[in-house]
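Researcher: Here's the sequence for the chain we discussed earlier.
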Amino acid sequence: MSILKRHREAIGWTINDIKGISPAIVQYRIHLIDEATPRRDPQRRLNPLMQETVKVKILKLLDNEIIYSISNR
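Model: Thanks. This is the structure I predict for it:
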């Protein structure tokens, strides 16, 4: 912990903290055609045997704040 505290600037807490890497390189942009109409594919069902495994992994990622939930509204 003491080494991490001494070299705190070495860790990139945000994209702007990472020295020498332009955010334009790291960020991905999706270029859309103006005439394209948005579409949404139907949700696919997951194998029932895998549902519990996926649920446990998602809850673990949520608890560790690696992912977070968003509102669709």
